[in-house]
Structures are given as structure tokens and as C-alpha cells.
Amino acid sequence: MPAHAPAPDPSPAAPRPLRVALLGCGVVGTQVARVLLEHPDDLAARAGAPLELVGIAVRDTTTPRDGVPPELLTDDAASLVTRADLVVEVMGGIEPARTLILSAIEHGASVVTANKALLAEQGPVLFEAADAAGVDLSFEAAVAGAIPIVRPVRESLAGDHVTRVLGIVNGTTNYVLDEMATQGLGLDKAVQQAQELGYAEADPTADVDGFDAAAKAAILASLAFHTRVSIDQVAREGIRSITTDDVEWARRSGYVLKLLAIAERTAEGVAARVHPALVPTDHPLAAVRGAFNAVFVEAEAAGPLMFYGQGAGGRPTSSAVLGDLVSAARDRLVGGKGPRESAYASLPVLAADAAVTRYQVRLEVADRTGVLAQVAGVLADHGVSIDTVRQSEALTASFEAEPASEPAAEAEPEETEPLARLVITTHAAREASLAATVAALDGLDPVRQITSVLRVEGV
């Protein structure tokens, strides 16, 4: 080495800490804070620089948080996001989360969020702001808790063509339906049990009526098909109308009832929907028990793939949040960017009645000769093909006799008629055709009641 050459510095200066602001300190936020405070060396080694938690925005700074130093708590979220390099948003809701995230991005911070409702409603606004500012907007925890699904769909399958995504993405409803199937509980009792175990909120509307799953379906559809899909474009039906009879008939027919989020690409465009569905017992999704989640992806080259794991809870969700945080920190240190929003395809988003699937229709009909032929004729008239028909044991129903024109001296004796139950499974048909068929069946003379109409998926 020439005498005038400077000796290499054996201990280069350590990178400055990256300042982390946390918005929200509920179940997930508390766990994120604990990991940041308890494992700083591990996270620094993985990220490439120390991650310094500089503040936690909460509504009430006087409420103690287990394992969280009170001096980190602040009710001034607006100021906190302006002095951070990385912002983690786990507060939920649309506002003030939207305003705070946009402010963080404007001030040059990368953002990690678990807020599926915000992304499903305001995603394009947030993605465009992040792109313009050259920062990351990461959201692995927004879809299925600890399950890595955003990265595989967005990055690992970037060279493939995803054709369909089926997901059990709401642990509360999966737990409820599982308890109904295995323990014979009614819906209300199963929901109450889920609340007692902490799986469901005091107000379970977002879960039971499918809003939570619909937000996740919008995100999955947008990722899989490179097309912006909002929550308003997702056809939604929850499990509130599911009965123990539905669950029992599913079992008798070789199915399990699940609330599915479905996104698929057809020759006409993209369709996204959430509804209860009958899943064959030999399908991988049928074996997903309790409050677990699973996402089943079908791609042209890769074929079927399934991602399974815990979809909710502080520890599982914090795992995904912290994974995004470490990735965003690495990008910031090297001056790079994570994957951007991909909406180049801009495919048409189809209306709900354009969906194509199979159905199971349960009817109570008069037990007469020729009734089955009448029912089959109605289906044929609407272009709905029958796969199987099952008729259960006859039952007897009472009905009032037509009133006489003259007042009767004595009440007419009650008449009865024998009834039969029909369980019809169709081949694939459009939602619009099925709706028209059900309406026509409801007006058919021998049909006494349409007990249930359920979709069949995964066949």
C-alpha cells in the first residue's frame, strides 16, 4: 500500500436510528411496541439500522398499556407523524387515519398499515401520494393477519397470471360456522361464544355481515388482477341468515359452510364477492377450523397454492406489521422503493349478477306427481342446468281452508297436505339467471317455501 494512502476505517460510523411513530395502541399496536422495545438489536440487524420508537399516538394518554412506557404516549398524532421516518398505522377506521397517513407521506415517511377498510375505500389516493413522494406504503397485515399473502401475490406471482382467489379471511365467522357445524350451536349462541373468547367485537356487524371480508376481497382482487377494485364493487352477503338446518344439510350433501371472499378474472373482466358458500369436504379450505384463515390462489403456471395461518390477534398481526416495517427500513437506507401499486390492466369490474357459480336450492313442495318435472322445467326455462336432485322424507304441513262465502256455524276442520323437500344442486350458472329462477319457483303453484339458496364453490 503506498505510504500516502489513508488506512481504511476499521469501524465505519453506524447508521443513524430510523424514527418510528406508532398510531394506535390497541391489541396489535401494543404488541408492535413491545417487540420494538424488547428486541431492538435483532430488528436493527435485520433492518440495517436501529428502529427508534419515538411516540405512540392514542386517544387517552392516562390509560396504562402493559409493557409500554407512558412517556411514549401522546394525543398529538398530527405532530408525531411529521417527525418520523417510518409510520405504523394500526388505529383502524377511515378518519383520522387517512389524514394522518397522507400527512406522514407528505413529510417523507414510509407507511405501514393494517387498515383494510381504509385501503379498500381510499387505496388509490394513498398509493398515488406514496408514489409521488417516493416512499413505501406497505399493508401485508391488512388482508389475513400473519399469513403472507400480499407479497406472494404481488411479487412471487408477478410473472404468472392469477385466475382466481378464494379466501377464508375472517376468523370470527369461520369460528362461528365451525361451532355451528361441530357443536350444533345456533348462530346467536356461536357469536356470543366468539365474543367471550375475544374473536368478535361487542358489535359483530363488520364480521357477521361480511364488511370485513369484503374489504379484504377488494384488496386481493386489486392485487391479483392489476385493477383497482373498491369495497363498493364487491358483492356482499354475510352469514346472519345461516341456520343450523343449513349447516346440517351441508353435511348431508358432502359440504362444509364457509364465508368466502372470492376474486376471479373472466373473459369479461374482474368479479369480487363475499358470501356463504358450500365447500366440498375434500377441498383444502373445508379443513380450515376455528378462527384460522386461509387463502387459496389459482394461477396459470403455478397451479393451486394455499396460504394458511392465524388471521387475527395481536401477536400474529404484529408479525406481518413488523415484517413490513423492516422491509420499509431497508428500502429507506438504500434509497430504494418497495413494489408500487400495479393497476395497469384496468379491467372492467363486473356487476354482482354477472358472477358464475353453482348453487344448491332447497325447496318445500307439495308431494304430488309431476311436481319435480314442473320445477325442472322452470330451471330449464331460465338456462339453469340441474346436476343432482335429492328428495327427503315427506312431511305434513297444515294450512287454513279457504274462507266460505257465508259464515259457517262451526269452524271448518283444518286440512293437511303432504309435503316433500327437494335439494337441487345446479351446474354453473349466472347469478342473474339463478335470481330469476328463484323468483319463478317462488310463484310456482306446488312450491310452498324456498328454504335456502346457497352457492357451491371449490368444485
Low-confidence stretches: 395-405
Tell me the domain tally.
3
Strand content: 25-35%
Largest sheet: 12 strands, mixed
The N- and C-terminal alpha carbons lie at a distance of 72 Å
The CATH architecture of the largest domain comes to 2-Layer Sandwich
CATH topology descriptor of the largest domain:
Dihydrodipicolinate Reductase, domain 2
Q: What structural class should be given to the helix and strand makeup? A: alpha/beta
The rough form would be described as elongated
Helix content: 25-40%
**Rg (CA only):** 27 Å
State the helix count.
Answer: 15
Total DSSP E strands: 18
Output the CATH homologous superfamily of the largest domain.
Answer: Dihydrodipicolinate Reductase, domain 2
